[in-house]
Amino acid sequence: MVRIIFAIATILFGFVVNAQDLEKSLLWKISGNGLEKPSYLFGTMHAVCEINFDDNLKKALDETSQLYLEIDMDDPTLQTSMMKDMMMKDGVTLSSLMTEEEVKLVDDFLKANVNVSIKMVDKFKPFMISSMFIPKLLECPMQSIEMELVKNSKEQNEEVYGLEEISDQLAVFDKIPYKTQVEELIKTAKDNMVEGKAEFKKLMAIYDDQNIEGMLDVMKESDNKISSDFSDVLLNDRNANWIPIIERVSKEQPTFYGVGAGHLAGEKGVIKLLRKKGYTVEAVK
Q1: Do residues 234 and 156 touch, judged by C-beta distance below 8 A?
Q2: How confident is the model at residue 12, as a pLDDT?
Q3: Which of 1, 102, 125, 242 has the smallest number of CB atoms closer than 10 Å to its CB?
C-alpha cells in the first residue's frame, strides 16, 4: 500500500513540476541526450525600440557555429519568394470581404498611415497588411533583433538558416479565415490603432522582463482573434515541426536558435517539447 501511495505521489509531483511556469529568461541552453556540445535557444521579439545583447547572449553566440531563425533572413531570394505567397487564394480580395463603408474606412486608414490605397493591396492577405502598421505601433524607430543576429553571424563568418520556408510561414494565414483577418484590420482602422498600441506596449514590457510565459498569456487573452483563437496554427503546429530539425541540427554542430519568444513557453512550446525528447533545457541567467 505504501509503495502504491509513493508511486501515485511521484506521478503527481512529476505532473506538477512539468506544469510549472518556466523561469523568466529569454536565453536557454540545450544539452544532454547525446549532444557533444550545447546549443542555445533565444526568444526574440520581431520589432523592438532598442537592442542590447548582454554578456550571456554574446557568449552563447561565440560558443555556437551557425544561426537558425524562423526563416533564413539572409536568403537573397526571400523577397521574391515572399511576394508569391502574400496574395489570398482563389481570387479573394479585401474589398470583396467588406461593405462599401468598410472599404472606405480601411482605404482612408491605409492612405493616412502607410501611404497606399486599398486598390494597391486588395489581393494581399489581410494579416500582411496589418503587419505594415508595426512601426506605428512601436512609436519609435523600429529595430530587428533577427537582423542583428544575422549581422553578428556574418561578422563571425557563420551560415544563417531557417527552421521553415517563407512559404510555410505565409501559408499559416491561409489556415486562418480571411474574414477573421479582415475583421481585425477593420477594428484597427476604426480605433486608429489605440488597442493595438496598448497591447504592443504591454508585450514589450513583458518581453523586457524576460517573462516568456507572460507573453504567451497576453496572446491567449488578446481581443485580437488571430492571436487568441489560432494559437495552434500560429505557434503549436510550427513548434512541433521545428523539433526534429533542432534535434538533427544540434547533433551536427552547436547552433544558436532565434525564434519569437511566444514559441518558447507553454506545454506545447519548444522548451518543454525538447525536454520531453530527453534534452536538458535550462535558463541562462
Answers
A1: no
A2: 34
A3: 1
C-alpha cell at 32: 544532454
Written as nine digits, the cell of 5 is 501511495
Question: Which band of pLDDT confidence, cut at 50, 70 and 90, is reported for residue 93?
Answer: very high
Segment 263-277, tens digit of pLDDT = 999 999 999 999 999
Please list the residues that pair with 256 across neighbouring strands.
40, 67
